[in-house]
Amino acid sequence: MQPNILIFMTDQERGDVVAPDHPCITPNAMRLANEGIRFTQTYCPSPHCCPSRATFMTGLYPSRHGVYNNVCNPAAIHDTVFEGVAMFSEPLRDAGYNLAYAGKWHVSNTENPADRGWQELEVRARTGSYMHIGIEQWKRKKLDEGAERQHGQVLRPGWGAIQLFNSYPTDTEHPYESHDDYTVVKSALDALPGLAAQEQPWCLYVGVTGPHDDFVVPQHYVDMYDLAEIPLPANYADTLHDKPQVYRRMREMYWSQFSEEEVRLSAPLLGVLHDGGRDVWPAARQA
Q1: pTM for this one?
Q2: DSSP of 214-252, one letter per residue?
Q3: Where are the alpha helices (DSSP H) in 70-125?
């Protein structure tokens, strides 16, 4: 009997966040991992989103499938995979699988999931998406001289400010139903009964955008942690005096802007709680 396949892919998340002993509190992801399969020896083939996604879909290195950077950008080296490159959905379809796709595509800017055998649900980053900031937009983003930095914000001289992380009150003004990922997951949940009722095996892909930056979350998730007990990174006070100048420049211009409290807050939001924090929150891990 052919197995049914559910793929749930987050975006820009460290692989060890769903490790059994990781201090980040992710009960739903942990349940999915515990009842499914952990690919603990799988490694990212590229630091960029699109090449990694194309590798996931094709099983090839970027040098073989041809996607090297953002396909929805004027600077794209290639806006799709090389001609003749197949994706895993095609042999699944040929084997009789029903395929359904919800969420982020971002593999090609000339093809959509339907072109590779998928039934499309709520799809994001499909053909025609434009992920580029022009010069006029940069000008509007440029911060006025002398403006004060806000919490979780990085001031970038000549480039304006960027909100790296923060939290907002959990109230009716920010309902989770309005989040883009909610509609993606809901479309998958709505499709699942129909897939399960059919005789053919199915493969359902659900790709959310979170926790892609900016890392701004409802306050009740932050309240799950005791920030005072989150240890600072071991290199927090490192001046980088023995490192290349470009490292020191990055520290002085950007990361030195954050207070200790902000660094502690950013750790669970960015999923970068380090090894030193693994044994200090037994209560949190049981929550």
Answers
A1: 0.86
A2: SEEEEHHHHTTS-GGGSPPPTTTT---TTS-HHHHHHHH
A3: 89-94
CA distance 14 to 44: 10
Beta strands at 202-207 and 165-168: parallel, antiparallel or unpaired: unpaired
Strand partners, 216: 166
Structure tokens that stand for 55 in this block: 């590798």
Structure confidence by residue, pLDDT tens digits, 68-104 = 999 999 999 999 999 999 999 999 999 999 999 999 9
Ranges of beta strands (E only) in 126-222 are: 153-156, 160-163, 165-168, 202-207, 215-218
Residue 64 has φ and ψ, to the nearest 5°, of -100, -30
Query: Using alpha carbons only, how large is the chain's radius of gyration in Å?
Result: 21
Q: Which domains does the chain have, with CATH numbers?
A: 1-132+169-221 (3.40.720.10)
Token pair recorded at residue 80:
């799709």
Q: Using one digit for the tens of pLDDT, what is the confidence trace for 20-62? A: 888 888 898 889 888 998 888 888 899 899 999 999 999 999 9
